[in-house]
Design goal:
The chain is mostly helical. It has five helices and two strands; from the N terminus they run αααααββ. A two-stranded antiparallel sheet has the order 1-2. The protein is flat.
Length: 125
């Protein structure tokens, strides 16, 4: 009897909570945005940009577009490997759990120059 009343209570709860979400937008729902689109450029400007890409033989919307295809490094593989091995302590510290806080604290007198986006690791002088 207890099982039947528990199941009945769950069914009643499910029926009432369904109406609580009526009218709200959930992640799986389809929503329509009624905001009108306002362009910041004219059609002629967009067409001119497309013509420039076509003239250059580049299609940035292609799945095979690779902007660094013709990139040539100024350093050899050996130079990059040597730089990495020289800064291995700094690399390990800055990729550790505390993101290098303990490493920076232990090197207070040293000048630490972070250059993450450039492609090298922080250096300690």
């Amino acid at each position: 009897m207890n099982r039947k009343s528990t199941i009945a209570a769950l069914i009643a709860l499910a029926a009432t909570t369904g109406s609580a979400f009526a009218g709200t937008t959930l992640a799986g729902d389809i929503s329509v945005d009624d905001t009108a689109f306002t362009s910041t450029r004219t059609r002629a400007e967009v067409q001119a940009e497309l013509a420039q890409f076509r003239q250059a033989g580049v299609n940035p919307w292609s799945t095979s577009y690779n902007p660094v295809r013709d990139f040539r490094s100024e350093k050899t593989r050996e130079q990059v490997t040597a730089e990495y091995q020289a800064s291995r302590e700094s690399v390990a510290a800055n990729t550790s759990e505390d993101s290098g806080a303990a490493f920076a604290a232990s090197h207070k007198g040293a000048e630490v120059t972070p250059r993450f986006a450039v492609g090298s690791t922080p250096t300690v002088r």
